[in-house]
Amino acid sequence: MRGGGGHFLKEYAPATATSSCSLSLEGKVAIVTGGASGIGEAAVRLFASHGATVVIADIQDHLGSAVAASVGDKCSYMHCDVTDEKQVEALVSHAVAAHGRLDVLFSNAGVMPAPPSGVLDMDIAELDRVMAVNVRGAACTVKHAARAMVAGGTRGSIVCTASVAASVGGLSAASYTASKHAVLGLVRGAAGELGKHGVRINCVSPFGVGTPLACRYSGATPAQVEESCCALACLKGVVLKPSHIAEAALFFASDESAFVTGHNLVVDGGFTVSPINFP
């Protein structure tokens, strides 16, 4: 840099170098949809361990209640089908009534087409189901969480689970790819609207993770899903786990990302930027 560039670095670099990154959610109230298993469960446990009071929303009542009980007093479970706007509205109202505020939404609930099919054989009813959960469900949760944050004067954070399929095609069924592109569009559109209220919204886009959902979709074991994705990723020596996605969501949920909104954080070991593994 010219002129004052050196002065700028001299003046500000020490403060940056010594600042701590605690990723604390102490005192914050969070909702995690799809929190009974997989990435959602990992996020519930991580958020709670960093001080948040967490409300799990899912349709897997037995699993959701068990996760809440295992986390402890700062975690509860509520049945919620995210495709039903009235249930989503009731979920948000419950969180605010029970805890006085809403600071974080992790809109993570999602489905994959079953069985997966190509465009030529696409089951339109299945397409409707995928879009209803992945897109309508995300829109419902974003709408009502954002309303609660704005009404409460909370500088809240909304995080949506998208996918590498929101960036590239051909990795999964076209119906799923379309739904995740739509989630990314929802996040970018909402960021422009919510910023004036101090509410942030971002996306986390995982590569293949060996979750129960991914295993049901692919017919593979968790280890097989992980092995396939490790082979495709250019970054070696790391196996993608639900905890990695939860940690990315934690960053967005925390005040450490206070000036980040409308961003899509792709957690894919470099696959989408370098799909060819060089020797």
Automatic annotation (TrEMBL):
Pfam family, one: adh_short_C2
PROSITE patterns: ADH_SHORT
Signal peptide, first to last residue: none
Sections of the chain in a coiled coil: none
Gene3D superfamilies recorded: NAD(P)-binding Rossmann-like Domain
Family from the record: Belongs to the short-chain dehydrogenases/reductases (SDR) family.
Protein name: Uncharacterized protein
